[in-house]
Amino acid sequence: MDSPVQSLSPKANPALRGAVVLGILHLVIALLTRIALLMQARHDVNWDLSLAGAFLSGGMADVVTTFFVVLLWLLLCSLLPQFLWRRVGWWFTAVLFFVYTAALLFAGVAEWFFWEEFQVRFNFIAVDYLVWTQEVWGNISESYPMPLIISLLAVASLAVVGLLIRLGCVRWVAGGQFTVKSRFAGLFTMPAISGLCVVLLSESLIPPFQNEYHRELGKNGFYSLFAAFRRMEIDYDKFYRVLPVEEALSKTRVMLTTEDAKPVSDQPLDLRRRITAAGPEQRWNVVIVCMESMSADFMGMFGNSLKLTPNLDRLAADGLLFSQCYATGTRTVRGLEALTLSLPPTPGQAIIYRPGSTGLYTLGALFGARGYESAFLYGGDGRFDYMNRYFGGNGYKALDKNAWDGADITFETSWGACDEDLFRKAIQQGDAAHAAGRPFHLFCMTTSNHRPFLFPTGKFVRRPELDGRQASVAYADYAVGQLVEAAAGRPWFDNTVFLFVADHCASSAGKSDLDVTKFHIPAILWSPKLIAPRDVSTLCSQIDLVPTLLGLMRWQYTSLFFGRDVLSAAAGGSGPRAFVSNYQKIGLLHPDRLAILKPRREVALYRADLATGGLIADESLTPLADEAAAWYQSASWLWRNQLHTGQNGVTLEMAQ
After folding, report:
1. Does one domain contain both 482 and 550?
2. Residue 123's domain spans which residues?
3. b/e map of 107-137 (b: 16 or more CB within 10 Å)?
4. Distance of CA 653 to the CA centre of its chain
5. What is the CA 36 to chain-centroid distance, rounded?
6. Kind plus residue range of the DSSP H or E element containing 500
């Protein structure tokens, strides 16, 4: 059977012929992938002409991506001499077609599962997953039947190649002839077009669909992955709404200044404040438990009827509950950054990822200046997300599972030891510090509430009606109960305060640019002897939790934290607010308003309903845009000028 593209010259470059076939194959698979993702999002998209626009935008992205997809084929084919091509051309073409088909189908299936979990195309998370292969491959192999999936992909790839052979495409490609001119065209034409696409095109050209699902469908997975890799850090001043530097810093100084947090100097570019308090400082032990993916709506306290979190609900009733606390981002590193640096989420990757992320003004530095024994405890490999580097270089002893004794681990998944193991290690560290006569601060990062949702089932009994996620939430809560029960019997318990807080919610995607309901997290300060029960319903951010805790301890210190003590009567500032983000889009949230700053200096202003996530555009909220710009521009300026390291003449007075 003849190939459907026989109209091309019979002596055409076989590399270019193969590029045509592979390009068509990529476009077909990309379209089928988009249709499959649409089926997943069928209840969330708007079935109108906007959806057709998303498919048109996606088709254009697929065409652009095709130039990149065929580059390796062109290079390999063009390097083969003609005499060798005559001998192996058919088999070479058939094998490469199989490899390409398998890779394209695998990417489509991967996007299906990635969308299932995150409701977006490949993004920064996918880039991280390619970097941290050990943890991620273990997670994937434990979560999905990979042998079956790979087998089915192999069969499907063989079927596609068989069809291409039957259509005559393989014989048509192998029958081409190389000339010096055609080799030159193959080696330079497509790379030149691809390079031009890199320079001229970006995802910022995708139309601003009102429904965020439409925007995601308007992308190509490969191109999104490449674009995410290029955007690991984003220059705020280049891409976002800016004010004159002096105006931005002046606004931020005013918003940060209160009666108990006054500037240390009259210099307009100096954002340091002196935090004051009445009464003697308290040297409480502090244990922060940062819980993986613990959304507020998992808790009975916030309306969940499945009784997943009896222990957290009890701690919330007996402790200080921040019932309107919002996470700054959608990744663990954002939560760690917010709790230790108390900074709004600057665009791009979290500071933990960036060069120069050690020797900073952090919570660990404050505790270290007062002689505390500080440790970061993590049941996984702390090299993941650069956690060991960050904590180890900022006042903490980094104790990931690689620093534990083998007997300390009784159950683990690809992400690390179970939460019970982590908490037993925390008790050991508390005991050791107390025996040495030193106050201690422990920062514990949990792993159990994470796909593949596996956990020990000895003492903990899984309820059969719960799905994997729900059962993992219940186990994580069970482990918290074990922690507080064990701690209650220790001599240091009465002088210890626990902060239980999520790193981020279990999911983040929604119909709007930033769905505020996907950032609501539990935050509980608990110490039966030290903190009276109370529901703090003031809207607040993750970055406010540590300053509030230090306020309860009546610490006096020089601060570069952007967070505030929400319990202080003097904490007026600009009123209750929270910071939310998803890498590129950074938001300032007030109880009834939301400003979202986007690349290309775009701003979206809304009237917001925190309970439902409903947003109504209101362009009259221009002052809110300037406030958001001041916060984020100042935080980015502070980082860019290395003022968190005490350089450029600024000395950070972190001791008493």
Report:
1. yes
2. 14-230
3. bbbbbeebbeebbbbbbbbbbbbeeeeebbe
4. 32
5. 24
6. strand 496-502
